[in-house]
Amino acid sequence: MSAVSEDAADRTFIEELFALHHAEIYAYIFRMVRDADVAADFAQDTFIKAYKAQDSLEDRAKARAWLYQIAHRVVLDEMRRRRIVRFMPWTGESHGAAPSAEHLAMEMRLSGPLARALARIPERQRAALLLAEVNDLSGLELAGTLGISHVAARALLTRARESLRVALADEKRLEKEHEAAIDAEYAERARGAEGHRPSDDSRPER
Amino acid sequence: MSLETKRLFGADETIHDRARMLAAESVDGSLAPGDAEWLDAHLGACPDCAAVAEEYRAIHLELGSLATPEPPRDLWARTSAALDQIDAKAARRSPGKTAAARQGNRPLVATAVAVGCVVVVAAASLLAQSPVITPVTSPARSDVVALATPSPAQSPEAQGAPLAVVNGTSYWIDSDGGVYQIKGGTTQCTAADGSCTVASGGGNTLGSIASDQVVSAAIAPDASRAAVWTTDKVVILPLASMPQTVSIDLLTPKPTLAATPTPHAATASAGASALASAVSPAAPSASASTGTAQTPTPTPTATPIPSSPASPTPAPSAPAATQPIAILSGYEIVGRDPEFSADGSLVAFAARPVDHSTGPDVFLWRSGQEQATRITFRHTGLFAGWYGGRILISEISAGSTGGANAARSTSYIWEPSTGKTLAIGRPMLLPAVDPTGKYLVYWSGTVELDPATGLWGPASGDLYFDSWSNLTLTPASFALSAAPTASPSPSPSPSPSPTAEPTLSPSPSLEPSSAESPTAAPSAATAAPSSEPSAAASLPQPAMPQILPVAAASNMVHRWVVAWDSAGGHVAVWVADPGSSRIGRLSLFWIDRGSGRVATNEPLLAADKVLANVAFDEDHLVYTSAIDGKTYMQAVPAVPPSTVATPAPPTPGPTPSGSPVPGSPSPSALPTDRPGN
């Protein structure tokens, strides 16, 4: 194949990959970084890196897992880098860290406690969970994406599920305590109001 | 408990552990038949494990129903344009064989310097204490050398990620499977062409950290220790050869710092000791502070504070310097990264609880202490940087009248050794002071509350170059005062309405009034100047604030980075492109210290598509292209080109006087009609 046609094939291949997988790659990155701008930047980086490194893809049938692997590395590396670099620009938020759990829940249609719990677990575990549970990667694809053995990937996934379960239970407990505190406050107010206006026993709207 | 009972208990526990592990694995139906049967039998007999299994299934179902976020419509256009540039560059280098050329863009150094990480944690601190660097006289031209190109084929865990390139030594982090190693090596620069190469390869391991979370670090100026942080913890880690691996996730502060801040009444004169007690559970919890702390001894205004090292007093019970210390837990870093003071004895940063129940406050750790101590209490504090031994703090606070227009940004100087606070009599956000303490660059404009993050941030504004002599400093007492409404706020949910965010109410006494600061201008919150104020008309001494023409249009600076060279002769400013958080335009200016003005019409470098990681190392400006991922060290000319004996020929077109960077940020993309020109 001539150099020109080889290049054209390279370019065509990456365009096909983009058409097939950009939505899921973007979605994975977005769920990891929880910032639309950053996710777009990282998704772009992913395909640029894929274009530069096509020679590293030995089997094009495995392109999807290979793309996820690049995206995963971009995410973790960039998130690490953003924290490492000293001169962070003012972003009005902690780097790479999250919008509020409520915002995340809205964006992702998660319950508030689950969104908060998901945000609490370690990033590698979160990545494994999202890749397996949301992006439907197979066990082998997950292992390839994370750059670890199949057994290690399963163990990581199990740890992630347990971490999330514990974190979720904690979040639900906190939410109950919070609601109880609010109820107590309203009850206290209601008692105070009764002292002044015995007829008014309405409960303030929540 | 009998031995038999212990055995039974242990065996029983193992069975339940196995059941739960299999239950976790079973949610995606991947159990072997034998395991599945065993699990079913166990769950039938063990209600607790059955409940756990049900929780796993519920989580699995909820995660599976997640909505899919839509990628931006221009994602392909952006990506395609970047691919075009790669092809074009490859074609220039190796006509007819772009793919081969593309593959040739592989690391020049074995351990690729991760993009943009040559800039650094320790750099600024070191710069602040470095002797004045004699600028290189020969390279009036811009010498740029590619240091490294990251390769996606290379495991990121194998990539060095320099924390600092300082005085011939670079520091970076390698990570592998959740173990992060802080390493040090040498940087070699050849005097002939001003080019440098960041050391790579093995390096010496100085710190080793194990964590399931992403680990970041800032190196002390003397590289004796690092401030290391994850998403919910900050640790001080001693650096030494042959370190033991520290499991940072297991470290906890002693004693544990409560996540819920407790307001304390104290006078500023109580100073550091009051601060130390403010977060100590052993200290009597001060009751309801009303935020009426008294102001410290008046300090003359309009007097630049000379840079001076802090003089911390280590506590008698200082822990061994060889042990890592978790100084804060349950908090996430907000805004700038933690930074050591110039003498390395203090670390300052802003953080907020991980549950976002309050806004950020500024924390300070002193050598010898086991915890970071909170130095602001209104949940609006942002760490702006060090000013000698003092800390610059910014706050964005809602006015009492409510509404976004009433919000304002105010900055303070806080003296760690005395607790004295001076309010800067000009509304500004995140001032950055040059190493000589004479000039500063700050942001001024309108601010807004981002409901997504619950944090205030810049809405519309510009960066200004100013002289300290223009500013009025007014004694204030913000540091030790608590917000009047800082009682535990039950709602972690931020509100877009400033009036509904109780922790943002400012203490009225801290608002620098115009009467106190007659020279104060611009008025930041609502009346940011839209053009350079009478720069050419009168050139008053001292210089008036100058708008730095660093963005594509005025009032478009939302995210930025400011870096000074050690002599205070140059300032580099990176400003994010609209819609991007990490790619932007880098401008380098010469400062005429005689007139106290920046040569804004003659930038020494203007490059687009640069990552935010910008810093000076000696007489080089270090930055990274977002296009090719390469890191460049560009020699900074001793004097601006127009003043040298053999000036560089005027560069036509959009590129200012700096030489274009080979194969990277496209200076040609710069418009010529930039504001201020």
Question: How would you describe the overall organization of this protein?
Answer:
The complex is a heterodimer of chains A (206) and B (677). By secondary structure, chain A is mainly alpha-helical. Chain A has two domains: 97 residues, RNA polymerase sigma factor, region 2, helix turn helix motif (Rna Polymerase Sigma Factor, Chain: A, Orthogonal Bundle), CATH 1.10.1740; 108 residues, Arc Repressor Mutant, subunit A. Helices cover 75% and strands 0% of the residues of chain A. In chain A, helix 5 crosses helix 8 and helix 7 crosses helix 8. By secondary structure, chain B is α+β, with helices and mostly antiparallel strands. Among the domains of chain B are: 62 residues; 296 residues, no CATH class. In chain B, 15% of the residues lie in helices and 27% in strands. Chain B is built from eight helices and 32 strands. In chain B, strands 1, 2, 3, 4, 5 and 9 form a six-stranded mixed sheet that branches. In chain B, strands 11, 12, 13, 14 and 15 form a five-stranded antiparallel sheet that branches. A five-stranded antiparallel sheet of chain B has the order 16-17-18-19-23, with no helix packed on it. In chain B, a hairpin with a 3-residue loop joins strand 7 and strand 8. At the A-B interface, helix 1, helix 2, helix 3, helix 4 and helix 5 of A face helix 1, helix 3, helix 4, helix 5 and helix 6 of B.
Give the secondary structure arrangement, pairings included:
The complex is a heterodimer of chains A (206) and B (677).
Chain A: H1 3-33, H2 36-52, H3 63-84, H4 101-108, H5 112-120, H6 123-134, H7 139-146, H8 150-196
Chain B: H1 3-26, H2 33-45, H3 47-64, H4 75-93, H5 98-104, H6 121-129, E1 161-166, E2 169-176, E3 179-189, E4 196-198, E5 204-210, E6 216-219, E7 225-229, E8 233-238, E9 245-247, H7 271-278, E10 325-329, E11 331-333, E12 339-340, E13 346-353, E14 361-366, E15 373-374, E16 381-387, E17 390-397, E18 408-414, E19 421-424, E20 429-433, E21 439-450, E22 455-467, E23 473-476, H8 535-538, E24 546-547, E25 560-564, E26 570-576, E27 583-592, E28 597-598, E29 605-611, E30 615-617, E31 620-624, E32 631-635
Parallel strand pairs in B: 5-9
Antiparallel strand pairs in B: 1-2, 2-3, 3-4, 3-5, 6-7, 7-8, 8-10, 11-13, 12-13, 13-14, 14-15, 16-17, 17-18, 18-19, 19-23, 20-21, 21-22, 22-24, 25-26, 26-27, 27-28, 27-29, 30-31, 31-32
Helix pairs in contact in B: 1-2, 1-3, 2-3, 4-5
